[in-house]
Amino acid sequence: MSWNWNSNGLPFLPGYSFRDVTKSAFHRPQTLDYKNGYALPRRPTVGIGQDPLLSEQLIQQEINELSFEKPDIAYDFFARGLSKEFIPAHVALDKKVLRFYAFFEETLDEEYRVRPVVIYYYLEDDSMCIIEPVVENSGIPQGKRIKRQRLPQNKRGDHYLWKDLNLGMDLEVYGVKYHITQCDHFTKEFMESEGIVLNDPELMPVDPYNKHREKSEDSFRTASEFDSMHRFLTMDRKVLRFFALWEDSDSVYRETRHVTIQYFLVDDTVEIREIHKPNSGRDPFPVLMRRQKMPKKIKPESEVFPRCVLEISKEEVDEYFSPKDFQVGQRMKLLGRHFLLHDCDGYTKEYYQKNHPELEIKTIEVEKMEDIPQEKKREAPPYNGFGSLEDSLQNSLSLLPKPPVKNLLKMLVNNNKVLRYSARLLSQNPDDEARRFVLSYFLSDDMISIYEKPTRNSGIIGGKFLEKTHIPKPDFTVENPEFYSPADFAIGATVEVFSHRFVLTDADHFVLKYLESIASQVPQQTLDSLRQKLGVRTANDPAADSNGDVEESSS
Length: 555
Known about the structure:
The protein is α+β, with helices and mostly antiparallel strands and 555 residues long. Helix content is 18%, strand content 26%. The strands form 5 sheets. A 6-stranded antiparallel beta sheet has the order 6-5-4-3-8-7, with helices on one face. A hairpin with a 2-residue loop joins strand 15 and strand 16. The C terminus is likely disordered.
């Protein structure tokens, strides 16, 4: 603003200013200029009509007035340091929080639960939040119950302040009563500094549900072993290894197998593995007994319940096997199997010399365990007449019987080689005198089959009389049966087949040819009977059956 104004002692107010009527120039000053081709603003130095600017006049007038004023001698320059600096509340109370401990009760059907919470009061903005500590495996949602906000105190719209909080009081928020029991040290100092006397702290009540749960968990909790961590750090990867022989009594041939017994010192567990040779045809998984603690003595009352249903627990075992029970040169029984410890590795020998010097290690050279005492030999079941003897024996050895082992080389060499004999049935019934049979002996698997020839006007239909099977001799035992062989089939011999008696009357020429090839294994009486019978037949009736069937010669 520019104005040629002379106050003459009057204030610069409307009605006290007068315009100069003699003034004739009213042009505005130039405020835009160009420099190097660019338009640049320029601050005006004079007002309209070349009048001086009012702001410049006021500034100059204030400078003149200040130049003639003198400082007050009574003013103390150092007194300004005594004035307090203003600090806003959000800065002074930033990160200052009051913490109270409380709980609330949750009513269940007939019981109730005590759930502890932590109440945080933020002095910065008088906001609060309530958090429930998370308990592992509690089964209920926990964590932040009420997020940070100003909590309403009543229906009038008032909010809770720090002055309203104290120990031993109930804080009702959204229909839930929180009983405050304790607070931390900072909260106690702050409240006392503000002149609030806190009540005595209270103890947090015990939750009856958790108390009952801890009691039930203790009844099923396994007692911890003494200093198990130290044992793990000192005994980990330290294993005693023994070399032993095991007689497989479940096998048909009762073979002896080489095994290694490993005793893990870290947890007193035992693992048994078989030693397989290359191309042995054994199971590719050599673990005979998985790693476990071997029970040595079992409580007598635990024998009532069958152990094949459930595994043996620690409560049923009086004593487990320890390193003292594994002695080289002696026999031992592990889970019903007999083992002979005949050697061990170098670390095992050093361990026994250091920890058990009283035990003597006797390394022995053995290949079999024929003298291992057996508790009771397994008796084979009586033969029931169905199937073969091998099938009945396999049923007694395992729940899932395996087929008997066959000689593949013998089957390949003697494939389709059959010795056939003509036979008649010995019976007291006169109707059976006319019945004729063909007895076939299969060299590939030593089995015998019997075929009955059809007879005219006999009333008996011919056909298969006996399927291929092994036929034992009379008065045989199931443990050591003796089966018929071609050496027993002489002309005129009696063959008893499952309570049926047959008399051999004739044979094929192939029978004599085959038996002569193994004459050292056949009795001379059998060869002579065949030569005599077939020689008579060749002289009287040279014609042979084209199908190879045996024809009974006329007496």
